[in-house]
Each structure stands twice: as C-alpha cells, then as structure tokens.
Amino acid sequence: MAKRTTAARSRKKARGRARKYVYFFGGGKAEGDRTMRDLLGGKGAGLAEMTNAGLPVPPGFTITTEVCNIYYERKGRIPPEIDKEIAANLARLERMAGATLGSPENPLLVSVRSGAKFSMPGMMDTILNLGLNDEAVEGLKRRTSNGRFAFDSYRRFIQMFGNVVLEIPKESFEHEFEAVKAARGAKQDTELDEHALREVVERYKEVVERRTGRPFPQDPHVQLTMARDAVFRSWMNPRAREYRRIYGIPDTIGTAVNVQMMVFGNTGDRSATGVGFTRNPATGKKEFYGEFLINAQGEDVVAGIRTPQPIQELERVMPAAYRQLRTITTRLEKHYKDVQDFEFTIQDERLYMLQTRSGKRTGYAAVVIATDMVAERLISPKEAIQLVDPEALNQLLAPGFDPDEWKRIPTVTRGLPASPGAASGQVVFSADAAVQWASEGKQVVLVRRETVPDDIHGMFVSQGILTATGGMTSHAAVVGRQMGKPSVVGAGELEIDEAAGELRVNGHTVKEGEFISFDGLTGEVKIARVASRPSEILQVLSGALEPSQSDIYQRFERLLSWADKYRRLGIRANADLPDQAELAYAFGARGIGLCRTEHMFFGEGRIPIVQRMILAETEAERRQALDELLPLQREDFYGVFKAMRGSPVTIRTIDPPLHEFLPKREELLVEIARMEALGQEGEELERKRRLLGRVEQLHEFNPMLGHRGVRLGITYPEITEMQTRAIIEAACRLSREGVKVVPEIMIPLVGEVKELRDQKAVVQRVAEETMAAQGVRVKYLVGTMIEVPRGAVTANEIAGEAEFFSFGTNDLTQLTFGFSRDDVGKFLRVYQEKKILEKDPFASIDVEGVGALVRIGVERGRSARPDLKVGVCGEHGGDPASIHFFEQAGLDYVSASPYRVPVARLAAAQAALSVKVGD
Ligand code: ADP
Ligand code: MG
Ligand code: MG
Fold it and tell me: How is residue 167 annotated by DSSP?
C-alpha cells in the first residue's frame, strides 16, 4: 500500500528547498497541491488542491508530517524555528480572516485537524472551535447576535478539547449534557437554548477542573499548541497503530496537522453540515449519495446523535447551495478521475468545502465504478486498471445466500445496507469476544449498538457487522465497506443488552452464541443459520448462469481483459486435480505452475494402495503397489492436461515425507490396545501392528528437513519412474487425440546439481521407454524447484541441468529465515508488535532476504541458460505486493491458487504499469 520510494523522493525534494514545515492555503492560492500527500497528508493536499481550483475552502495552513516525526524524535519538543513558522502562518491567517485568535471583540476560531497520507477513518482526532474562552464566547455572541450559537460552539469545544487533549472520557461530558437535557425535557440537542447551553458550559468546565485539577485553559495560543501536540500523539494511539498494522501502513509516515478557519453549520436553520460521495460506494451506482444535518457541526452526521437526512432533501431546503455542491463535486470527480468522498458545511446558505478524497468502496462498487468511468470516457482502460485494488476482485467471488432458502426464513428486522455480501454466524457483542471465538474456529457476526474505531480487530475477524444506530457513513459502514465485510447498520429495532449478553428484536431474543444472518445488499436480518452459495461470477463460470444475465460478470471480464493487455507476467495456477484446473482456466490462468502429485494419493480408495507401497519390504512389493497407482495418476494427469488446453503444466514429483500418508502413531496405539482388549486377534490386528512398526521407523525429528522431496526420489527411484510413466502416457494419449500438451516435470527441493542429475536421468530413461512403447513422441521439459537456499546460490550449476526454475517461496522463506511455517504463529505477532518484522513473510515476500535469493537465482540461472523459464509457485504468487516484486525481478510467470488468479492478473498489470513509469 505504502510507496516508500515516492515518500523518500518528496522528502528529498522538501530538503532541497530551504526547510519548510508549514504550508498555507487560502484566498484562491495554496502553497501545496495534490501531489504532496506524503508531506501534507491526504487532507492537507486535498484542501490545497481545492483552494487552487478556486473552490470555497476556509483558509488555513498545514503543519507537515515531517514535524510529526520531529515531535517523536525529540520526545515531544518542537524546535523554536518551527514554532515561529507556525506563528507567522497564524498571523497570515488572522489577516486573511480579519479576526484574531483570542480577541474578545472579533475572535478567530479554528479547527485543528489530523490527516495522514492514507485516510484512517476515525482513528485520529480533530478539534473544532478552538480559540474560544470565557471572553471570546461573549465576543462571538455580540458579533453574531446569536448567543445560542456561541455557547453551542463553546460547549462543543470544551468537550472535544477535554476528550482529545486532556484525555477525559467522553462519557463524563455526555453525562452532564444529558442531565441538562433531561432537566429541560429536551429530546434533541437543538432544543437547548442559550441559557441551557451556558449551564452545560459551566458543568463542562467543572468536569475539566475536577478531572485535571486545573481550570480549562483560557489562553488560545496555549490551546493551539496543546491541540497540535495531541494530534501528533493520536498518531501513536493503540487503535491507529492496529489500523496501520492491518493495512500495512508504516508508522514512520506520520500525520500532518491542519489548522483551518472555522465555518459554522450550527448558526441556525439556514446552516447545515454534511458528507457525501459522488457515486454510491456500496453498489457503485452513479448517484449522488450522502447525508446532512441542519443546524449541526462536524462530526454530528457520522456520530449518530441525530438521524441525518438523505442529501437529496438538501435540494428542497437549500436549492442554491445544493446545486453548487453538485457542480463542485462533479468537477472534483473529473479532476481527480475517481469517486470523491467529501465534507461540506453550509453557513447561512453559503457553501464551504472542507475535505475531498478518493472514496473507499466495496469491491463490487470498485469494479462497477471503474468500468462505468471508462464507458463515460472519464478515464482510459489503463487508468481503470489502476483504480481497482486487486483484493476487490476477491470480494466479488465471496458467496451469497441461496435465494430460495433466504426467502423461506422470516425477516425480523431491517437496517441500512451498508456493505454487500452474505453474513451468517454466531452472535457476539464485543470485539474481544469476536477475536476469541474466531480463534476457536467459529464464524461470528459482530453485533454492536454502534462500532467505534477500537472495535477494528473484532470487525476484521467477523463474517459481518450489524449495528443498531448510525447511518450509511457511520464507522461500521465505512470500515465494513473497506474491509469487504458485509455490514448492515442502523437497524434501529435491535435492542442490544451487552451486559445480559443478548439482543431483543420484535419479540425475539437472541443470546450470545446463537445464529444470526443478514444480507448486506438488502439490509434484511434473520434469526437463523443460512447456508451461502457461490457468487454470481462463479455461477457464470460453472455454467449455471449465462454471462449475458450477469452484469457484474461482464464488468469483471472487461476489467480483467484490459489488465491482460498491460501485464507482462504470465499467470498460472496451482491446481492438483482436473476440476481445480478447469476452474483456474476459467479464471484466466494459462498454465499450471504447480501440480502436487501427492494430493492425488488422497483420492478415494487410494490411501490403502499408497500405504502398501510404503509398507513394502522389498522393491518388488513396492513396484506392485506402484503399478496399481499408475493408471490412477495417469487419469488425473490426463484430466489436468486437458483442462489446460495446450498451456504448460508443471508437475512436481512426490514431495512430502512418507509418514504423512500413514495414520498417526497415537491413533494406532489406541486402536491396537482396543483390539487387544477385545481379544480381536487376526489379520487386521497384525496389519495394524506392522503399520505401527513402520510409523515408528519413519518417525523424524524434523520432517520438514527430513526424508522428503528429491531425497525420496533418489532413495526410491521407482516412485519417480512410475510418476514419469503416468505423465508421459497421459501426454501421449492426448497427443494421439490431437490435443497439444507440454508437460514440465519438476523435481522438488534440489540444493545440489547432482541431485537433479540423478533424477533427470531416471525421468529421461523412462520417458524414452514410454514414448517408444506408445509409438508417439511428445515434448517435455525437466526442471526444478528452487526452494533450498543452496539451490538459489548455485543456480548457475543447477541451470546446467534444469530447463526451467520455479521458486517455491514457501519453503524458501521457511529455510531462509529458519522459521517453521507451522510454528511461526507462536511468535510472529510479537515480532510484528515489536516491529522486528512488518509483514508476515509467508504471506508477502521478504524482499530483502528471500527476495535477494530469488534475484540471485534468476541471475545465476540465466547466466548459464539464457532462455531459462522462471516462475514462482509459492503462496506469494497470489499476493499483490509480492507480484510487484516478481515483476521487478524479471520472472516469466506467477502461479496462484485458482481463486487468486483474478487478483494476480490485475496485480500483474498494475505492477507492469508502475514499474514502467518508474514509481
Ligand atoms: P476526520 O478525519 O475524522 O473526518 P476532520 O478533520 O475531517 O476529521 O473533521 C471532523 C469534522 O469536522 C468534519 O465533519 C469536518 O467537516 C468538520 N470540520 C473540520 N474543520 C472544520 C472547519 N474549519 N469548519 C467547519 N467544520 C470543520
Ligand atoms: Mg473528515
Ligand atoms: Mg516445497
């Protein structure tokens, strides 16, 4: 996600100029622009860009992300030259605004807003109405002749400052607010008059004094410094760090601080505040989308304090401002060539823009929007490819409910359809419970009154998120869409009793652990466990649905066909059986990068034969068992070759240690003991005893480093012989049927060229014999997997024998780090927390270490054999960041699991495009 190279470049650029830490915007001109997100953060860059475009943006200035890093380096102290620069910009803002911070006659009020390069919804803090104190509030009242407004602003300020800067829990303030409301019989906050709000302010000040032992700070310059530092501190709060960990955003990029003149949506009924999107972020539909509140400020819309109105209503109540908003946002979308998520405030019918950024969207919406924008000629296909996160395609493949079954179950309530997809699971009421249950392998649905940023870890592991309050832009909605989690929000009939561990809805009670299901596209909620069914795209691919009946399938295909035009890397799939190969082909794989033959051994009725092979005491006995396996393997290979329709198929000879095909020692011991106790002497018991003996014989201290891979083929060449014969016979048969096949026989775990030479001789001898017997010649290749570090280092020698390489990055990672894949879970989390590792190296390639071995392998291999074909078949073949690396390393293809093939196609195109433009 993060591109360090551009960050480094723009930092350098900044250093080249005399150091500048603060960037002004206002009066139609800004010192920054959209390209400066590293330095100004997304929000600051957007405010600058909108200012330059002549849009109505309140003036202000941005303190750069560099200052955030300085703040941490110097343990919270900001050097005086930066303070001076801030003061100079504040003076400039005061001149432009014609108001002065702290002035009792004409006070300037500002917001202090966080904003990093990547938007992190609700993770950090913002303070509004800063500059108010006991005197200034009276000044504000006099100037506006609106005492209610002045005190509404002041109480908001004390609460936000108290919470964010002084770290007083929100509830302490809310408690007082509710008390005043109750005393006056007010339902809504707007029903409180000046007098009531004065009382709220007094109570809030007491809360501050009680909690901190000091009065509320009255000096606006002190307020400003404290607020700035609190924003910097919020960068490192636990929820922000957790968010960055999930999304792979480095801690080092820091946040900017925006100080901006306030405009007021809370001056009365001709004022409002709102948020919106230029297109529907859930479905992608081209419709103006959003919500607003009359006589409100900032966060009110998303905080669920009052229920906001749909933005279309704005046209009725303030037509001029509405029209202007539509014109501006349409322009912004054209300018940025992407859906915009914007914030605005209307003060006495005058519109102000407060933020614009690329809108987060569901995977479904991402594909719809990208293809629509090409059809509208807003962007080119090449730009469309870059607009879609490859992981979005994965969301499109997620299952839905069987519509018939879904229809049969009554709907108990409905909420707002915030993020599409079918969710079914056991109810949990807290994020921690979600994490706990999920770690026990349970599928959970997180049900909350509303979610808060602290819930993010629980949302991440849930099947879906269901809330009782909040609108389409609430936290649960925004984060749900971004994570691709089905979400239904604002299901107001839900009564959630967290303490009792139950929810009640329309006469039903659902306890923690009971099943609930909902549809994120319609908002329907049902009390049941409902089986899901394949996504529309999979239905088309399996032939159950005509392509012409599925709009989303057609868009998916269109987008991927554009991607195919721009990618350089070939895309193959890891598939072991014919049906997987068929699916992979349908997803667009053109070749199998890894066919694991041993998976065929687990097929029906095969295990006893395999076990007989393993138990054999003599070679003759072993050959007998292998003869029985031969026709079965031949059929599988025939099917896989056929599914690939002439594209290359890489088949790996047997790899895992043999004990994997035998029962567990403990199980055998128990069974034998039981049979003995029951007096069941006889052949079966004898067999079990022999099996146990062999299991004990095969026991290894470290199977991953044991008798496996090429070592098996060398000690039992008859296995390699049988597999070669099965492969070549299947190929000959297809060749006779007029179907082209290119088998690539791959020897695993080679670290020394002589290992490969030994096995290659076996393969070639048997292939020749087989072709002679069949009377057909087929072309085949013999190559190896590079997955032992020694293999990468001696790649030049190995390439003397190997006709192709495939990097087995799973084992290569395991052996390079010396981490067992199966045990890494015990310490990886701590490694990540301590920043020893940023990412799980088994999920995304370790570029510096494992990647260096890949580069060495490619370079040395090709030095010996310039036309050496090189691919990768580890899990990393389906990971976008790793694909980016493989593009740079000059591999010929990546191989991913069938479901990841679409992701890999798109990621490969993005990698090719970005490598070309040098980003
Ligand atoms: P977030 O990143 O959490 O959205 P923001 O900094 O965008 O936080 O601000 C929170 C809310 O306050 C937004 O609704 C925004 O529009 C509003 N806001 C921020 N600055 C101002 C301002 N100068 N005048 C009026 N409203 C503002
Ligand atoms: Mg915002
Ligand atoms: Mg391996």
Answer: -
Q: Which of 199, 232, 207 is nearest to 127 (CA)?
A: 232
Confidence of residue 918 (pLDDT cuts 50, 70, 90): very low
Pairing label, strands 29-30, 22-26 = antiparallel
Question: 714 C-alpha to center of ligand 1: Å?
Answer: 68
Distance from the alpha carbon of residue 354 to the mean position of ligand 1, in angstroms: 7
**CA distance to 266, 702, 788, per residue, from 664 (Å):** 71, 16, 28
Residues assigned a catalytic role: 475, 873
Q: Kind and range of the H or E element at 29?
A: strand 29-30
Tell me which of 3-7, 282-286, 362-366, 427-431 is least confident: 3-7
**Residue 916 reports pLDDT greater than 60:** no
Q: What pTM value is reported for the model? A: 0.84
CA distances from 272 to 263, 294, 299, 326, 349 (A): 10, 4, 12, 16, 8
Packing angle, helices 619-644 and 607-615, rounded to 10: 140
Give the DSSP per-residue string, 451-493: --GGGHHHHHHSSEEEESS--TTSHHHHHHHHHT--EEE--TT
Pick the atom of ligand 1 nearest to 114's CA: 6
Q: What is the DSSP string of 851-870?
A: HHHHHHHHHHHHHH-TT-EE
Alpha carbons within 13 A on the beta-carbon side of 52: 15
Residue 350: is it exposed, middle or buried by C-beta count within 10 angstroms (0-12/13-18/19+)? middle
CA distance 474 to 294: 18
From 113, 123, 153, the mutation candidate for ligand 1 (largest count of ligand atoms within 8 A of CB) is 113
Residue with tokens 């100079």: 88
Residues at CB less than 6 angstroms from ligand 1:
58, 111, 113, 122, 126, 128, 260-263, 298-299, 343, 345, 354-355
Retrieve residue 777's tokens: 């010649």
**Which residues are bridge partners to 61 per DSSP?**
24, 259
C-alpha 655/C-alpha 217 separation (Å) is 70
